[in-house]
Amino acid sequence: MNKDCAILQDLLPLYEEKLLHPDTEEFIEEHLKICQECRQIAKKSHIPLPLPAEVKPSGSSKKMIRKITLRLTTVQIFFVAIAFMLAMSTTVMNDKAGFILTYTILGAVTYLFYRSVLVAVLLAGVPTFIWNCLIYMTNLFGDFPIDSFSDGISLILFSLILNLMFTFIGIVIGFCILKLTEGN
């Protein structure tokens, strides 16, 4: 095998895909006219590859998928439960600033797990909204604390926006952590 044969055989896949410069294609075509060995290799390379056998999931793979789905569902329920507990324990009007750290951590952890801003916002926002509606718009937990409906709505929205602001800070932290780990 001479040097031209080695070069041609290396370029043959690109030639078949029409990815070569016209001058290089011309070189290959000229060489194939005079070299029997390379012509045979080129003919063999045109043989279509056999299709792989169809893969059917076995019983063990179905069990594995069920097991993974169950674990993910458990983790999701855990996140929702944590979000509701945070909403109940860290309402803005309790004169506590603990919600700042907890919602930031919740935003970071949910973003790291789901890699979705929407899911992180929903997990932080929906429980907070529901809990604040129960506290400020009903008398389920004692006296009705708000004088008017509009005051209740404004208090609920203020609390929701404040909690979501710290959730977004957590999402940004989670995004940065992902980028740092992907870089390594």
Low-pLDDT parts are: none
Mean pLDDT: 79
> What is the share of helical residues?
over 70%
Order of helices and strands: HHHHHHH
What gyration radius follows from the Cα positions, in whole Å?
32 Å
Counted by DSSP, the helix tally is 7
Give a brief description.
By secondary structure, the chain is an all-alpha fold. Helix content is 77%, strand content 0%. The chain has helices at 3-16, 22-34, 36-45, 59-89, 98-114, 117-137, 149-183.
Could you describe the 3D structure shown?
The chain has 184 residues and is an all-alpha fold. Helix content is 77%, strand content 0%. The chain is built from seven helices and no strands. The chain has helices at residues 3-16, 22-34, 36-45, 59-89, 98-114, 117-137, 149-183. Helix 5 (98-114) packs across helix 7 (149-183). The chain is elongated. The chain starts with a helix and ends with a helix. The relative contact order is 0.09. The mean pLDDT is 79.
